[in-house]
Amino acid sequence: MNGGEVRAMKIVNVGTAVVKGNFDWILVKVYTDKGVVGIGEAYWGAGVVDLIHRAKQLIIGEDVTNITKCVERMIRGLSGEGSSSGTAVTAISGIEIALWDCVGKMLGVPLYVLFGGKIRDKVRMYIDCHAGDGYTPESYRKKARNVIEQGWTALKFDIDVPTPYSECQDEGEFWYIPYNRCLSSLEIEYITSIVAAVREEIGKVADLAIDCHWKYSVKDAIKLLRALSQFDLLWVEDPIPPENIDALLEVQKSVSVPIATGENLYRKHGYRELIEKQACRIVTPDIPKMGGLLEARKVFDMADTYYMPVAPHNVSSPVGTIAAAHLCAAMNNFLVMEFHAHDVDWWDDLIVTDARPIIQEGYLHLPDKPGIGVELNEEVLKTHLVEERDFFITV
Ligand code: MG
Prior knowledge:
By secondary structure, the chain is an alpha/beta fold.
């Protein structure tokens, strides 16, 4: 490119395809007048696809490099000025990521270059194991051994699971029990024995995080986290419901275990109070949900001013995962990112790339091609569509 030359590339359409993975993966394509096509992904949710198709009407004809302008226009057009309506922000996130892919392809550079350049060539991932085959210490131990043998160096397990002492033994009903039930001493003891079994199995070779899915009251969370403090946990995630930052601050001040939270928050303003009050030790934005790559970068930076690490929540296909990894590679305060598709054996068949598998020994190896650096394998994608007619529809 000659000095001073400005490249222009206009958005002409946006398409979507929804793939049935372990979640519904909402894939997005942004088509341009120069033939360049960007790919992105939005977090699942009712109404997201419809909102993507509404949002695109607001940006067709705009230059792909004007990402902030496109995002602000879509925010105002879908949910009003200053609003951070969750589903609308999620829909916009998918388009935003695809716009960055277009810009990377247009300039011929990988995404990490656009976010300040990479600090690391590979991005550390942790595996979300959920539970064992059952909810016993032995089944958790077996699962932990299994993933350690696969080379993972950071693990997360759910402990908000039915125990022999739970008041509800019906698993279908258990997940709907409100947070304010009483967590008995016997339950705390049982949960502690599960975490003890995992820690004993993995020793110090891997980091261990625990997820509570917003299940407990303040008093029970404090009791439980104090009991778990002996296991040198990487973090305990979402011990109490997400809406009350002061309540979370009380829990964090009462325990030594680092608390991680943030997967339900949107845009930078959604994180301000959490970070400013230091109500947790680790922030967990979901990038294809909370506003996209540039908005997530602002959250990384805000957290960095309080020396708080960021560990992105992630349940995406390879598209959303690798896009997020480009940003993580460029951020000082990146800690580790989630991998949640352990049970989807075709997860990285969904993309075409020179470097396979994308995740090896617990690290995601960043592609160096322009943009996100991978393309979709559309034959594989077609076999996993939620609705066959939805293959990159452009209504
Ligand atoms: Mg979680």
